[in-house]
Specification:
globular, alpha/beta, three-stranded antiparallel β-sheet
Length: 353
């Protein structure tokens, strides 16, 4: 798989000289962030990580001080691995803690326990990683408000610079969905999730964190540069099975089957599909991602990028169809309130073309 990933990096670079293939990043543009995510990239050896980073450097221009993030599970984190990751060039970690409560972790079938969730953060700090994030999940059945507050307070006390929080969701055709249908596990309570999300927002604000995206909180200077570029609609290249790429006009995605992916790359071909985005898709996507951020929707940008009529259409919907308590209109910006963040997707759909 690693050889195939490296080969894809090389082939994508060659797209720059091939008019028949869609170019995502031109040879004069800088790569500002690199993100090892999806699956369990923390299982990669330091040599494998280094070889991938080296290939990117050989085929693209990397900006000085580029953010290079690795997703890691708490049970994969050791002193040795942390030192190896630093030497390989990793300068930011995203850690899937999920909870500091033992019962919660067992319910989610996590491989690590509550002790490992705490110890891994201590090891990360001692290894010199001052830039890292942890994930927490709220709204799990049986998680009391008191327990959720303890989870958030523990994060604050540990001085974690960045926190990503997500409500538990039940995806169709999953083992969890089947267990709930068979009454072997409790279903989620959306009212309880909304209450815990409200607690989270207030606690993080009081602790000095900036709520810069619906699911993300950061201390000053510790926003995720990689994820922020996605929310700002910047270009990105995805490498590997199922990976997506985007250049503002075209979206590409690789086939998800690992064996098929490797087979194609062995023949120097990337197994991808693509779509050319329509103006409707572009504006709907801008509305969806910008509304999630602290900067909000920029009406001036909409007018310049799309049209004055499009700006007026959105202003009209905001005036007539969105409750005042849900949004703040600050000059040319439309920003969600705390109440609005609970209904972000619903509000975005109202603004779609």
């Amino acid at each position: 798989m690693i050889n195939s990933i490296i080969r894809e990096i090389e082939i994508r670079s060659s797209f720059l000289q091939n008019e028949n293939e869609p170019t995502i990043i031109s040879k004069n543009e800088m790569i500002e962030t690199i993100y090892f995510g999806g699956g369990t990239p923390s299982l990669l050896s330091s040599n494998e990580i280094l070889s991938i980073i080296s290939s990117i450097k050989q085929n693209y221009k990397i900006a000085p001080g580029a953010e290079i993030t690795l997703e890691a599970n708490p049970d994969d984190i050791t002193v040795e691995k942390l030192n190896e990751w630093k030497l390989a060039g990793i300068n930011r970690l995203s850690i899937g803690v999920q909870s500091f409560i033992e019962r919660d972790l067992k319910w989610m079938n996590r491989a690590h326990d509550a002790a490992q969730a705490l110890i891994c953060i201590q090891l990360v700090v001692e290894a010199g990683f001052d830039n890292f994030s942890i994930d927490l999940i709220f709204g799990t059945p049986g998680l009391s408000d008191t327990e959720w507050k303890e989870n958030v307070q523990r994060t604050i006390e540990l001085n974690v610079p960045h926190l990503a929080c997500y409500a538990l969701t039940v995806e169709p055709k999953t083992a969890l969905q089947k267990m709930i249908a068979l009454k072997k596990k409790k279903d989620i309570n959306t009212d309880a999730q909304a209450a815990q999300y409200s607690m989270l927002m207030q606690m993080m604000r009081d602790a000095g964190y900036k709520h810069y995206e619906i699911s993300n909180f950061a201390k000053p200077g510790f926003r995720s540069r990689h994820n922020s570029s996605y929310w700002q609609g910047k270009k990105y290249i995805g490498i590997g099975p199922s990976a997506h790429s985007y250049n503002g006009k075209i979206r590409m995605w690789n086939k998800s089957n690992n064996s098929l992916y490797i087979k194609f790359l062995q023949n120097n071909t990337i197994p991808y599909e693509k779509e050319i985005l329509s103006d409707t898709q572009k504006i709907n996507e801008y509305v969806m991602i910008s509304l999630r951020t602290i900067e909000g929707i920029d009406l001036q940008f909409i007018e310049k990028k799309f049209s004055e009529n499009e700006r007026r259409r959105i202003e009209n919907i905001i005036e007539k169809k969105v409750e005042r308590k849900m949004i703040v209109v600050n000059g040319d910006k439309i920003i969600l309130t705390d109440d609005g963040k609970l209904f972000a997707d619903r509000i975005a759909v109202k603004l779609f073309v």
